[in-house]
Design brief:
The complex is a heterotrimer of chains A (332), B (338) and C (294).
Chain A: E1 5-15, E2 20-31, E3 35-40, H1 47-55, E4 63-70, E5 73-76, H2 80-83, E6 92-95, H3 99-102, H4 109-120, H5 125-138, H6 144-147, H7 157-169, E7 175-179, H8 187-204, E8 207-212, H9 215-221, E9 224-229, E10 232-238, H10 239-244, H11 249-257, E11 304-307, E12 310-312
Parallel strand pairs in A: 3-8, 3-9, 6-7, 7-8
Antiparallel strand pairs in A: 1-2, 1-4, 4-5, 9-10, 10-12, 11-12
Helix pairs in contact in A: 4-5, 4-7, 5-7, 7-8
Chain B: H1 2-29, H2 34-39, H3 45-55, H4 61-74, H5 87-122, H6 127-141, H7 144-158, H8 170-175, H9 185-191, H10 195-232, H11 235-242, H12 247-285, H13 290-299, H14 303-331
Helix pairs in contact in B: 1-14, 5-6, 5-10, 5-12, 6-10, 7-10, 7-12, 9-10, 10-12, 12-13, 12-14, 13-14
Chain C: H1 2-6, H2 14-26, H3 28-45, H4 47-50, H5 82-118, H6 120-134, H7 140-149, H8 153-180, H9 183-190, H10 195-207, H11 209-231, H12 243-249, H13 259-285
The chains are: A alpha/beta (332), B mainly alpha (338), C mainly alpha (294).
Chain lengths: 332, 338, 294
């Protein structure tokens, strides 16, 4: 199956006065139709930057290298800011974290969705209006007729997030990127929104990239998961595989910190901090916080396949749990 | 909605009463008590007591204040000690001049300052932006009177393009007379069909209006720019970008609306600033408005006049702020009360 | 390379120099304003030592001399050296600025503190009172008050302070209100500490920054206002040396003798500019979005 959106060798760095901050280092990511891929990591791991770069939303002071494959076309990632306008909203839509500030407070909800639709689709005004109300209904918002004229401040956080999803849908995108869509919401609302995303993904065969730091979200609704650390993917694969049999030490620790998923009853934490991205990384980025660290970790590990689809980037993977043969990797 | 309006109007009158009370206290503090003014020097104690009774000065302060308020409301704002006319008459004659000056200046400030600020924000860090920001900072540091005098030096002294002072050439006013229907020379001269007089009025307006405008444009441009820049950094703009809305549309439809609304307050404040600045400008350009009236009144100890101007200008300012608050109700959807 | 290890923490160490240089580059305008202001401050403090002539010395022989080597800024119509007068004028303006702001803050801050901390009726009453003062267009209230008190620089300063304190009350009030609900206040209240103590020991130190920033931005405006009052004749009066007054005195002659008005005016401009740059820069530095504190 061919991926709908493919990011190859993406690097995002910000040159400053005295140093350069590298947020994303050589990242590869594929998104497939009908699948929700979770992108997990702590703050500062580079997940939001990845999404922003893929959509061409990064501000000018960044240096971006790599390629974006979108259906049949290929763009250099550095060109996405200009070229990306074609795919933004139309092929690839994005949802952000804070629903309360995502919408313009001075225009009605319906008007804003209308404007987005008019930008990307050629329909008459009446047709667009109908479409807007249909989308509002699709996200299970009650009384789309009345909602059309309401202003953002009249709605709750959960409702606004649904409106944003409706806005994303109206352009009939193939790819949906959701950047921490549930972080700012109550737990009950959270599960409703996630269920909605799942439903829409299945119905419309969307490719969804769900960015989050919350592993329970990933466990609930994702098909695939990629774990990011310090600008790189350190483990990725089928979500059930990765969660049941985590290979990379970081993934293991991450899972241990979530009481529902991890097996311990003690609240675990990962000692240390994310490395300073302003300094070049020597070898494995996680080595300073890893118990399994050895001399070998001073060399740079590459992404290696453990079994079908399950990849990791480590010299000391926890492979005992896996029942299949491990293919030996070659050093670079 | 109407409850809000009523509430605000009552509040305004309350504040106005407070303002009048303040000026009342000031008037009682002024040197040269009313008694001495009436009786001249060296009055006998009996004469003083009589005069005080007559003027109601022996009654408690609050009663005096009520008399004072009553007078104000009935239109008795005292007599100017200089002109000998009722203060309210003097003010009526001079109101048009100040109104013409400040309104024209406000129009210029808004039509030039706001677009400049917007453009400066849209093209951040461009040459235009840097020039605008530098100009703003410089403009805010210049005292209003200096701007006026510099303009006089350059455009009258060196270039002789514009007259030094006054509102119209006196000979022109005599030869080509026109009826002061509105008190605004620009309109009255046109209504009277007096083209020469119109041109003279325009000529005389240029420098004073420019002086008043320059000082305020700096502020308005700066605030517009900063507000717009802030708005452009907000999340909802990010959403628009993420949906591929073209930059032009983002700037001039979405960001602009979010910027203009808080700008209403700035416009109100600017008008207030101009009411104050007009005092200085009228003095510099010998402009026959309320500002020069008040300056002359102070230097010649004409206190009823001073208080009259104070109350009038404060009332105007309060009214303008009230209007702006009302406008907000219509314009900002976040405030729409069901 | 060995030098680095020796110089890591000295006063002029490489690290310190790098940080300073970084600061200068990122806050160019602030540094410019601060340098200008510092120069003016020094000039004001050491005025007697700097000026070539006695600023009040009348000398009809040398009246209205154009700027020259002997008189850098020329002389006025009484033959007084303008440069000397401008330098002494700096003293007046700086003192005026500080005094007015100090007075306004001393009155406004406690009022705002009380209003924000106690809330309720006290807040309503105090706010209505400040509303009355804020109802006047700028300049008008100082004019009226100075008229009542009599024209002098001191009265002008009092008048300006009276017109200004409501702003500081307002600012203080809103920052206190945002702090009032913080945990440490509740903690202090639970421990039974008196309200006065809480207000001054806990609430005040955590909410005074906006007032400070506002003050630094207002300093320039204060100087402008005082100069304007003196210009129209109700502020400083001769023989006081004040820039606005100097411009006023030059009015009859300035068209032909430009330096009598230009230099005092320029002095006002430069000083207010410097102060504004400092104020702006300070606000940017203290802006939480930029990473906060000094």
């Amino acid at each position: 199956m061919k991926p709908i959106l493919s990011i190859k060798d993406l690097t995002v760095s910000f040159p400053k006065l005295f140093n350069t901050i590298t947020a994303v280092r050589g990242l590869d990511l594929d998104l497939y139709a009908g699948q929700i891929t979770g992108l997990v990591g702590e703050s500062g791991s580079g997940k939001s930057m990845t999404a922003a770069a893929a959509m061409g939303l990064i501000t000018n002071q960044a240096e971006v290298t790599g390629n974006i494959h979108w259906q049949d076309k290929t763009w250099a990632a550095a060109d996405m800011a200009k070229a990306g306008r074609q795919i933004r909203g139309a092929g690839c839509a994005m949802i952000f974290q804070n629903p309360l500030t995502a919408l313009n407070p001075f225009f009605s909800v319906g008007q804003q969705i209308f404007d987005v639709a008019r930008q990307h689709r050629s329909m008459t005004t009446i047709e667009i209006e109908k479409e807007v109300k249909q989308c509002l209904a699709q996200v299970h918002l009650p009384q789309p007729e009345k909602l059309y004229t309401k202003y953002p401040h009249e709605l709750s956080g959960g409702q606004i997030q649904r409106v944003v999803i409706a806005m994303a849908l109206i352009c009939q995108p193939r790819v949906l990127i959701a950047d921490e869509p549930t972080t700012a919401l109550d737990v009950t609302v959270q599960s409703q929104i996630l269920a909605l995303v799942r439903e829409l993904t299945d119905e419309k065969q969307l490719s969804v990239l769900l960015i989050t730091h919350d592993l329970s979200v990933v466990a609930t609704v994702c098909d695939q998961v990629s774990v990011m650390y310090a600008g790189q993917i350190v483990e990725q694969g089928d979500v059930r595989q990765v969660i049941k049999f985590p290979v990379h030490p970081y993934t293991q620790k991450l899972l241990a910190t979530v009481p529902e998923i991890g097996n311990s009853t003690i609240l675990e934490h990962i000692p240390g901090q994310v490395p300073d991205l302003g300094k070049p990384v020597v070898g494995c980025a996680f080595k300073d916080r890893c118990e399994k660290r050895t001399e070998r970790c001073l060399q740079t590990p590459t992404l290696v396949e453990a079994e079908m689809g399950h990849q990791y980037r480590c010299f000391h993977p926890e492979l005992d749990n896996l029942n299949h043969n491990v293919r030996e990797e070659t050093m670079v | 909605m109407y409850r809000f309006l009523a509430h605000r109007i009552i509040l305004m009158f309350g504040i106005l009463a407070g303002v009048m009370f303040l000026t009342f206290i000031l008037s009682r503090m002024l040197p040269g008590s009313p008694v001495e003014m009436m009786l001249g020097h060296r009055p006998t104690p009996e004469q003083i007591a009589l005069a005080r009774a007559e003027l109601g000065l022996d009654k408690p302060v609050f009663i005096q204040f009520f008399y004072y308020l009553g007078n104000l409301v009935q239109g008795d704002w005292g007599m100017s000690l200089r002109t000998g006319r009722p203060v309210i008459e003097d003010l009526g004659m001079r109101f048009g001049a100040t109104f013409e000056l400040t309104t024209l200046a406000l129009i210029i400030v808004v039509t030039l300052g706001i677009p400049l600020g917007v453009l400066s924000a849209v093209k951040q860090n461009s040459m235009l932006d840097h020039i605008t920001r530098t100009g703003s900072i410089a403009g805010m540091a210049l005292p209003v009177f200096l701007i006026g005098m510099l303009l006089q030096m350059l455009f009258y002294g060196k270039l002789s393009w514009f007259p030094l002072q006054g509102r119209i050439h006196s000979e022109v006013a005599l030869d080509f007379s026109f009826d002061p229907i509105t008190g605004l020379y620009l309109i009255d001269t046109l209504l009277g069909g007096q083209w020469v007089a119109f041109k003279s009025a325009v000529h005389h307006l240029v420098l004073p209006v420019a002086s008043l405008a320059i000082a305020s444009i700096a502020v308005v441009t700066r605030i517009t720019r900063n507000t717009m820049v802030e708005v452009l950094g907000e999340d909802h703009i990010k959403t628009l970008r993420a949906y591929g809305i073209p930059a032009r549309l983002i700037y001039y439809r979405y960001a602009l609306k979010a910027t203009l609304i808080p700008l209403l307050t700035v416009i109100g404040l600017t008008y207030g600033y101009m009411l104050g600045g007009s005092v200085v400008i009228e003095y510099v350009f010998d402009w026959p408005g309320m500002g020069s009236y008040v300056v002359g009144a102070i230097t010649q100890s004409d206190y009823p006049a001073v208080l009259g101007v104070t109350i009038l200008l404060a009332s105007i300012y309060l009214t303008i702020n009230l209007i702006i608050d009302l406008l907000y109700q219509f314009v900002d959807p976040r405030l729409k009360v069901a | 390379m060995t030098d680095l290890s020796l110089n890591q923490s000295g006063l002029f160490s490489a690290r310190r120099r790098a940080i300073t240089w970084h600061f200068i580059i990122h806050n160019k305008l602030f540094v410019l304003g601060a340098s200008l202001f510092f120069t003016i401050l020094l000039a004001a403090i050491f005025a007697p030592a700097i000026v070539p002539y006695d600023p009040s010395a009348i000398n009809f022989r040398d009246k209205l001399v154009a700027p020259s080597l002997a008189h850098l800024m020329g002389t006025d119509d009484l033959g007084r050296d303008i440069f000397s007068r401008v330098v002494y004028g700096a003293r007046t303006s700086l003192i005026v600025g500080c005094t007015v702001l100090a007075l306004a803050m001393m009155v406004g801050v406690p009022i705002g503190l009380a209003a924000g901390y106690f809330g309720g009726k006290i807040d309503q009453v105090l706010m209505r009172l400040t509303d009355i003062f804020l109802a006047f267009p700028p300049m008008l209230l100082p004019i009226a008050i100075t008229a009542a008190l009599g024209a002098s620089l001191i009265n002008a300063m009092i008048a300006l302070a009276i017109s200004w304190f409501p702003w500081y009350a307002r600012i203080m009030r809103s920052s206190v209100m945002s702090v009032r609900n913080d945990l440490f206040i509740s903690a202090a209240q639970t421990m039974g500490i008196s309200n006065m103590k809480i207000m001054f020991r806990h609430a005040l130190p955590n909410s005074w920054t906006p007032s400070l920033v506002q003050g630094s931005m207002d300093f320039g405006y204060t100087i402008l206002a005082a100069a304007s009052l003196s210009f129209i004749g109700i502020g400083a009066k001769p023989p006081a040396i004040e820039w606005g007054l100097m411009v006023a005195l030059s009015r009859s002659k300035f068209l032909d003798y430009w330096w009598t008005a230009a230099f005092p005016g320029l002095a006002i401009f430069v000083t207010v500019l410097a102060v504004n740059l400092v104020g702006d820069g300070l606000r940017d530095i203290l802006d939480p979005k930029r990473g906060g504190g000094l």
